[in-house]
Specification:
With about 280 residues, the chain is mainly alpha-helical. It contains 13 helices and three strands, in the order αβαβαβαααααααααα.
């Protein structure tokens, strides 16, 4: 099938791409949660496909369906017509009744590797003739946490935030997405170890003035502590592009003179602080 429609899409492919295929129906369960919506779908399923081999129902965010809606759907799932296929998509598999899950073939979509996602975004950026630096793309990769859909949304948001003549560099991307330069955290932690209280407060004030929420700051500080603790067993890609080459090497250099006990103590204090912010 891949070879058949690789270069020249067939009529079915073209119709699905343009969302006009009469035998492919997509439903957003987040806004169609009730039993009446499912009854309409079941009623429609009784008719054979018009032009395709199968009639396909795609239900996105299927975990949002009500209990009654799931129960109404169950009978059709148990004894579906030979021409009918359901595709359920969800990010909350545990919220779907086991009676439904047990009647489905499950496919878990894995997170995309940082390097693969970076190369993909670079290709998209070039096709769209976007003026985006590699460091800005790496930041998008980090924020999206392996999700292609999220990374494309972020890239689109970033590209429409600047004019064609302005390069979307790391500094501008950090401002758009509310992130800050991780090297400031590394410098701050190094100053904490040296006991330079005045400069530590000065750096934090600078970070705070950028509009960074304390909770985001603490979470990022935890991430930096993790890298300090495990830097010798990591490579640059395994940091999910959270660090650049210079930051990676700086952490490696500082960590050589640190005891694990000190890092564990800082980790415990930071976790405790994070808990206090939730109170």
């Amino acid at each position: 099938i891949d070879e058949l429609c690789k270069d020249n899409f067939c009529e079915n492919c073209e119709s699905i791409i343009s969302s006009s295929h009469i035998d492919v129906m997509e439903i957003d369960a987040a806004s169609h949660t009730g039993i009446d919506n499912i009854r309409e779908l079941i009623e429609f399923s009784r008719y054979a496909p018009t032009s395709a081999k199968y009639k396909i129902f795609i239900i996105d965010e299927v975990h949002m369906l009500s209990k009654q809606a799931f129960n109404a759907l169950l009978k059709t799932l148990e004894e579906p017509p030979s021409y009918l296929k359901f595709i359920f998509a969800t990010t909350e598999i545990k919220k779907i009744p086991i009676t439904v899950v047990s009647r489905c073939q499950r496919f878990d979509l894995l997170r995309i590797k940082s390097s693969e996602l970076f190369n993909y975004l670079k290709k998209v950026k070039d096709l769209e003739k976007g003026n985006v630096s590699d460091d800005a793309l790496k930041l998008i990769v980090k924020i999206s946490e392996g999700s292609v859909r999220d990374s494309l949304s972020l890239l689109d948001r970033a590209m429409i935030s600047v004019d064609e003549k302005t390069e979307l560099n790391l500094k501008l991307a950090q401002k758009i997405f509310g992130y800050f330069d991780k090297s400031q955290l590394i410098d701050m932690f190094n100053l904490i170890l040296k006991g330079d209280e005045i400069k530590v407060i000065e750096i934090y004030r600078n970070i705070y003035d950028q509009g960074i929420e304390p909770k985001i700051f603490i979470n990022d500080f935890l991430e930096i502590l993790y890298y300090f603790k495990n830097i010798n067993s990591l490579n640059l890609e395994s940091t999910n592009f959270s660090l650049n080459d210079e930051e990676f090497n700086k952490i490696k250099e500082i960590s050589n003179s640190l005891d694990n006990e000190v890092l564990i103590l800082f980790w415990q204090f930071t976790i405790q602080t994070l808990g206090e912010l939730d109170i």
